[in-house]
Amino acid sequence: MNLSDAFEAMVLGLVEGLTEFLPVSSTGHLLLLGHFMGFESNGKTFEVLIQLGAILAILSVYASKIIAILTALPHDPAARRFVLGVLVAFLPAALLGALLHGFIKTVLFNPWVVCVALIVGGLVLMIIDNLDLEKKHDDALHFPLPMYLGIGVVQCLAMIPGVSRSGATIVGAMLMGASKRSAAEFSFWLAMPTMTGAFAYDLLKSYKDLSLHDGALIGIGFVMAFISGLVVVRTLLDFISRHGFGIFAWWRIVVGAAGLAGLLVFG
């Protein structure tokens, strides 16, 4: 492994952690950045497997809450209902992702698709952020079960790179009556099984094709994703409560437009 490869893996890992929990599409950013940097991973596995760093970041921040919910399961109906809600929200994307895994990797992992999805998603997020939506739910742990399912169905749109898993979750939750903060927090909870499932499935599909070089690059990206992911998870909810999603909507549009310009000029 040369220094150039290691540096690219560090940059991509940093971007993964910074963008994974923001409604801006981490996969879209990684694909665009990798395209213009000339970084080509084996079977597009790097972009998925370094998510483990971000997964561990959110698990470490939410460890006490997770333990509290798990220990309450035997005697607390509310805890059991929330865990069921997360599983119900997770299932649509899990089933669709397994069915379309090959199509997503070979067709949708495309910089042109990413740029268009970033711009369209930015416009949608801007509109939703400025709508005066009725806020019926302010606690992500107590959404109605049909609402959990509806959010899970909307999350399936994030199979398209550039849409954003957290962005789809947040928009779906807000349209169903969640406050901005509770919508963002539920995107954290739903990220845990969704990202873990995507990581495990991709690893199972591709581990035989990975070399020691691939593993070293993934390790570097993992560490950087963990560090930068910690920063985002610890600060995002307070930021959204104060400022909303406008800055992320504009960021998506600017990055998408810049990406299209770069593709037209440089190919």
UniProtKB/TrEMBL annotation:
Broad class of the protein's primary localization: membrane
GO CC annotations on file: plasma membrane
Substrates-to-products reaction catalysed: di-trans,octa-cis-undecaprenyl diphosphate + H2O = di-trans,octa-cis-undecaprenyl phosphate + phosphate + H(+)
GO MF: undecaprenyl-diphosphatase activity
TM ranges: 48-70, 82-103, 109-128, 140-163, 216-237, 249-266
Family annotation (Pfam families): BacA
Any Gene Ontology biological process: response to antibiotic
EC number from the UniProt entry: 3.6.1.27
Keywords: Antibiotic resistance, Cell membrane, Cell shape, Cell wall biogenesis/degradation, Hydrolase, Membrane, Peptidoglycan synthesis, Transmembrane, Transmembrane helix
UniProt KW Hydrolase keyword: yes
Location(s), subcellular: Cell membrane
Bilayer topology: Multi-pass membrane protein
Function: Catalyzes the dephosphorylation of undecaprenyl diphosphate (UPP). Confers resistance to bacitracin.
HAMAP family: Undec_diphosphatase (MF_01006)
Matches recorded under NCBIfam families: PRK00281.1-2, PRK00281.1-4, undec_PP_bacA
Note: Bacitracin is thought to be involved in the inhibition of peptidoglycan synthesis by sequestering undecaprenyl diphosphate, thereby reducing the pool of lipid carrier available.
Similarity comment: family membership: Belongs to the UppP family.
Identification of the protein by name: Undecaprenyl-diphosphatase
Originating organism: Chelatococcus reniformis
Gene behind this protein: uppP1
